[in-house]
Amino acid sequence: MAKLTRADVLARAGYAARGVVYALLGWLALETRSAADDGQNAVFDMVQDMPAGGLALALLVAGLVAYGIYKLAGALFDLERHGHDARGVAVRIGQGAGALAYLGMAFAAAKFALGYRHFAHEGAHGGAEMAGGVLAWPLGWVLVGLAGIAFVIAALFQAFGAATGHFMKRIASDAPRATEALGRIGLAARAVVFGLVGWSLLRSAWLVRHAEVRDLGGVLEQLRTQQTIHLLVAAGLLVFGLFSLICARYRVVPAVDVVHAARRRFN
Question: What is the model's pTM?
């Protein structure tokens, strides 16, 4: 059991789950166009209908939870030594936001696994409803705007990685030769998606209209009116899924026990 709390084990399970989600989402967007507009829920629906889909979905939930825990531990304990300068803090804030996103994705997958498919589909584009609830709070527009800024910053980091290949510093030297090319293509697609999600949040905050918000599926739906861009982004998301599967094997992650790190930090 102790091995299950190690950062490298959590990360590898998480990268594998992330890879499956993005690869299938990209595939759906390329094959059926409209099905992918449900975003992650379209993937969970597809997995659920496969032979032994219940087991596969349960494994996906476990992997996404593991990745969320790994991201949260990275944000709290700086597992990957990003440091405490402005860039390091920004990366760790991004890890924290990513932790919430992947834990939310795991919750959505769990609803499918437990048989609540109908309720899960009702929340397929839940970003707008969530934003509506936040905008109703005092200064809620500030929180939505900050979320938008976070997504835009994340998009810039993705674009930086796509342009420079900087991510290869954390990939083992014996990784497949195509790893860098796949990573650059996948990160470029994610930069587009994150940028559009962030822009929709900023517009929602500025106009105080929650209907402006787009989640992953909403962005793909929006891009369908621009066929070439839609196909490129869909293909890029599929490639990002393949890159994530490579990361599950070759990403360099410290073998730090997360529970032990938490005890050291808070005791």
Answer: 0.88
